[in-house]
Design a protein that fits this description.
Largest sheet: 4 strands, antiparallel
Structural class: mainly beta
Number of strands: 27
Number of helices: 1
Strand content: 35-45%
Strand order of the largest sheet: 6-5-8-9
Low-confidence stretches: 1-35, 399-404
Shape: rod-shaped
Distance between the termini: 239 Å
Mean pLDDT: 87
Radius of gyration: 58 Å
Order of helices and strands: HEEEEEEEEEEEEEEEEEEEEEEEEEEE
CATH class of the largest domain: Mainly Beta
CATH topology of the largest domain: Immunoglobulin-like
CATH superfamily of the largest domain: Immunoglobulins
């Protein structure tokens, strides 16, 4: 009977069984230990968009930008999620795209652009985290992988809009609206960012304050009313300027400008300010001695005014007797600051001193440099009373008694 090798057959069947059990155990162990989990892999870079996921073409302070995950391989997903866990960190780069630094506190999906970002570019770093059990010889662990987005356009530098000044009170004019009077203007009141500079321009307007035109060169705070302003009104426009622009405001008109006329505190006027149609007048005469009873020199004073009533300073006064041989020639004199001129006359022997007599004086007042027969000059004939000489009776003395 042949010998059967039952031992070898039994060992072969045992080896096959152990191999199958070992394979199944490894498969089960691999499944139970999670060895199919892998680290995240980025398949498409993150992006930056507006909040509607539209690509950015321009960015300015105040805009809100959105970080988008990009495309990732996450198998299986993060526990309790349908994909990896994603974290965001915004960074600020220079205009050339370099020297990027993290923006403190900017770790959300959305970021509002600030003034500090002006002139820079922005990007977002997206970090994907998953549970990795696919590294041989290591325990299962959380693994994070990061990726950067492209950069935004350079954040626009904001244009600071400064409000131009606004008038809170119009300019005003004080003073008398009369020829040769001085008017004073204020610039009004203004609001707005400082510094504010102001300027003014005087205007000549019609009697109703309309139809105004600039008075050439009249930009000072004061204005001396001119003859050209008579029967019109004066206004002033004030302008205020700051970095935001210029604004202007207009004063109310003055009263209608009146011609030059005397007033308390202004009663005299220089002869240089007298011109046609005004004329000079010799309106007062004062004789130191009345009547004239001797041939001694005497003083006559003459006041010169104009047809407006001003006392005239600097007028020339010439006096001669009629006929001229009754007094010696007198020099032409000038009126003083009070408008008076004093002339000393010296009678000749031809002046008859008699009761009820008269001495007539021809008086001329004129403006220096004008034609003697024209201009503003004036003439007047003045009578000075003449009387008989006073005869003084000789003194009488009582004879002394002799021999008493």
């Amino acid at each position: 009977m042949p010998h059967r090798n039952t031992y070898g057959r039994r060992n072969g069947r045992r080896f096959l069984f152990l191999t199958i059990v070992t394979f199944v155990a490894l498969v089960v162990a691999g499944s139970a230990g999670g060895r199919t989990n892998e680290a995240p892999r980025n398949n498409g870079a993150p992006t930056v968009s507006d909040t509607q996921s539209n690509p950015l073409t321009a960015v300015k302070p105040g805009d809100t930008v959105q970080g988008n995950n990009g495309s990732w391989f996450c198998n299986p997903p993060y526990p309790g999620m349908t994909t990896c866990k994603f974290d965001f960190q915004w960074e600020r780069c220079n205009a050339g795209g370099g020297s990027c630094v993290q923006i403190p506190g900017a770790a959300a999906r959305l970021y509002q652009v600030t003034q500090q970002d002006a002139g820079s570019r922005l990007r977002v770093s997206v970090t994907a985290t998953n549970y990795d059990c696919n590294q041989p010889g290591t325990e299962c662990r959380f693994v994070s992988v990061g990726a950067y987005s492209g950069q935004t356009p350079v954040v626009a530098t904001p244009v600071v809009v400064v409000a131009k000044p606004a008038s809170t009170g119009p300019p005003t004019i004080t003073g008398i609206a009369s020829e040769r009077e001085v008017l004073t203007a204020t610039d009004g009141t203004w609001s707005g960012p400082s510094p504010i500079t102001t300027a003014r321009q005087w205007l000549r307007c019609d009697a109703h304050g309309d139809g105004c035109a600039n008075i050439p060169g009249a930009t000072a705070p004061t204005y001396t009313v001119a003859a050209a302003d008579v029967s019109l009104t004066i206004r002033v426009t004030a302008s205020a300027t700051n970095s935001g622009g210029t604004a202007s405001a207009l004063s109310a008109p003055t009263q209608i400008v009146t011609p030059l006329a005397p007033r308390p505190g202004r009663t005299t006027l220089s002869i240089a300010d007298v011109s046609l149609p005004q004329r000079l007048l010799v309106d007062r005469v004062a004789v130191a001695v009345r009547p004239i009873r001797t041939l001694a020199p005497f003083v006559v004073r003459f006041r010169v005014s104009d047809t407006r009533g001003f006392r005239i300073v600097g007028a020339l006064v010439q006096v001669a007797s009629v006929p001229p041989d009754l007094t010696r020639p007198a020099a032409e004199v000038t009126t003083g600051q009070d408008g008076w001129a004093s002339v000393t006359l010296r009678p000749t022997a031809k002046l008859q001193l008699r009761k009820g007599g008269s001495l007539y004086l021809f008086v001329r007042a004129r403006k220096p440099g004008e034609n003697l027969l024209a201009g503003v000059s004036t003439r007047r004939l003045v009578r000075v009373a003449v009387g008989a000489p006073v005869v003084t009776a000789p003194a009488t003395t009582k004879a002394s008694a002799i021999g008493k």
